[in-house]
Amino acid sequence: MAGNVWIVAEHWKGAVSDATCELLALGRDLADRLGVRLEAVLLGHEARAMAASLGPADAVLYVDHPTLADAGGLQASRAIAALASARQPMAILVPATTVSWDLLGLLPARMGAPLVNFCRQVEVVDGALRVSSLLYGGKMAVTVAAGDGPVVLAVLPGIGPAAVEGAAAPAIEDVAVDLPGDPGVRLLEYQEPEAGDVDITQQDVLVAVGRGISSQANIEVAEELASALGGAVCGSRPVIDQGWLPLSRQVGKSGVTVRPRLYVAAGISGAPEHVEGMKGAELIVAVNTDAGAPIFSVAHYGIVDDATDVLEALAEAVARRKG
Ligand code: FAD
């Protein structure tokens, strides 16, 4: 009989991540189509209460161990590999996020199982899993069929809804796993974003600047527009790498994922690593001098022009309308 579908519940400082909620929705759909159970694997220490938020799963496999208190791939990979060896799931879905990154390297190796990385679509075709994924930083898309044995799927955040509404509380199964007392790697400290900086994940309006903004001085114009609209400024990686904005303002794969009501992307090309972090915005307006820039394929409105000129004109227009 086919094994069940598993999702790994990613949590951070006592809360289940948005990416986990998305996996629950995806996993629920896949399990229903395959006629198997959806099980969520929750690892932690004194973290059992979080199981209640994993509603769409039929059951939560909860492993409690003092060395699982902090996020860390080494000990988590030991625990999940031991569970998988005993129970043989069909597929293990893990969020492809910076939190789960080291787990994703270790788990398939420990299990001797294949890994499909950067999954952007997972379907059931003829009773088996078919996965579409991105390679080479998003430059190539491939579709692969999962084989018979367990497969680990690293699922990109933001590819589907996070539907957890109306789900009944799942059954919780406490599972004991033999783990070494020394986890090998220990978390020494959390490094918080600079105190007092804006949390861009909580903004309704974001004005994002990319390399096309040309200089740090031009960010002032973006600040003017953002403040006129009651929002904040954020940026693509080159802008952060150059020190023009703090790291807490970086949007994308190695930054944060944002879902504002309005996202103005100025001088941003639309690389997959950036788009991953902003494509969930309700309304995307892109400004770029290159009409062929990939950002226009995710934007709802596009302006082919100089970023600084357009931001300036928009800031003036908003100020005029307000005042
Ligand atoms: P560019 O790609 O250089 O684009 C600049 C754009 O500005 C061009 O489209 C150009 O036409 C336009 N332009 C030029 N002059 C003007 C002008 N005067 N007015 C208007 N437009 C103009 N990137 C992120 O953003 N966030 C991440 O979290 C992230 N994580 C990454 C993780 C990994 C593992 C890797 C490999 C890469 C990551 N990147 C990330 C980098 C990403 O691949 C791109 O290099 C980056 O997003 C490009 O930033 P950009 O669009 O500002 O610059």
Describe this structure as you would to a colleague:
This protein has 323 residues and is α/β, with parallel strands linked by helices. 24% of the residues lie in helices and 25% in strands. The chain contains seven helices and 16 strands. The strands form three sheets. It has a nine-stranded mixed β-sheet with strand order 9-8-7-10-6-1-4-5-11. Strand 7 (115-125) and strand 8 (128-135) form a beta hairpin. Helix 2 packs parallel to helix 3. The N and C termini lie far apart (68 Å). Bound molecules: flavin-adenine dinucleotide. The site of flavin-adenine dinucleotide has 28 residues, from helix 5 and helix 6.
Keywords:
5-stranded parallel β-sheet, binds flavin-adenine dinucleotide, alpha/beta, 7 helices, single chain, 9-stranded mixed β-sheet, 25% strand, 323 residues
